[in-house]
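hey
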């Protein structure tokens, strides 16, 4: 099976700190995923385990059916760039050259083309780049690599609005020309809402849900009214949060919207950002 399969992964640190707790999920080939979670939820730990930067305490990961742990073949299948992978005292163009030597599928011409689009100075040393241009460099390498699986961890850190928009456009163009699995871990949820096909929400080291964005958006809604009307409407529904505003009450619900004749109730759809906030505040059943 062409997929990243995560099987019962647990990661424990000293003093019994559990960063990931029996996590199982699948990232199928040929989809764009959003990996969402609050700070400290376990996103980066999961990414580091997938990319062999750290090892799980329990469980296993396979990529295209092969064990990922300590498997040198994985570097041609999956890519997740971080600053510690780089030679800080080298120029950007020198690192491009080393990437060409290390990865068979690194398109160095494409790397220079993307760098030019972002006005990235390839003669500048990596350690002299600003935070934004360090992010741009990492994005450039990831887009120039043709690995079947690529992970972006907070990819637009330090980028201005124009550069963020350019990255999203290049990402979609790359995906259209070279279908692969893209995993985007980000807190800028609304910016990627139109990019991602499936969402994975991680909270307190556990997978809260994994579902298509389209399906999730059809299920989430809010209903506002008097306390009495809302309490009556919400019986037997999956209420993920409520707001009390004096004599009014707003309930946030995950599930099929019930069609009722009550003009005292006001229904609204929830966007992805609002759903994420409410789900991670209260959890989901």
């Amino acid at each position: 099976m062409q997929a990243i399969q995560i099987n019962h992964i647990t990661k424990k640190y000293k003093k019994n700190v559990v960063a990931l707790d029996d996590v199982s999920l699948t990232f199928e080939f040929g989809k764009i995923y959003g990996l969402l979670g609050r700070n400290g939820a376990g996103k980066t730990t999961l990414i580091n385990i997938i990319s062999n930067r750290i090892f799980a305490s329990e469980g296993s990961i396979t990529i295209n059916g092969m064990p990922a742990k300590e498997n040198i073949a994985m570097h041609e299948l999956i890519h997740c760039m971080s600053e510690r992978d780089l030679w800080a005292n080298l120029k950007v163009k020198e690192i491009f050259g080393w990437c060409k030597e290390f990865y068979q599928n690194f398109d160095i011409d494409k790397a220079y083309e993307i760098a030019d689009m972002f006005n990235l100075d390839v003669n500048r040393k990596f350690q002299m780049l600003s935070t934004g241009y360090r992010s741009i460099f990492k994005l450039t390498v990831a887009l120039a690599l043709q690995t079947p699986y690529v992970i972006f961890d907070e990819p637009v850190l330090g980028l201005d609005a124009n550069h963020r928009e350019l990255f999203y456009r290049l990402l979609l163009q790359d995906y259209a020309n070279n279908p692969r699995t893209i995993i985007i871990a980000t807190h800028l949820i609304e910016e990627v809402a139109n990019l991602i096909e499936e969402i994975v929400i991680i909270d307190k080291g556990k997978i809260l849900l994994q579902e298509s964005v389209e399906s999730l958006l059809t299920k989430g809604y809010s209903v506002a009214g008097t306390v009495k009307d809302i309490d009556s409407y919400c019986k037997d529904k999956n209420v993920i949060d409520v707001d009390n505003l004096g004599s009014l009450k707003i309930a946030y619900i995950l599930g099929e919207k019930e069609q009722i004749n009550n003009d005292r109730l006001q229904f609204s759809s929830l966007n992805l950002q609002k759903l994420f906030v409410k789900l991670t505040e209260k959890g989901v059943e």
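The longest helix spans residues 161-177. The chain has nine helices and 14 strands.
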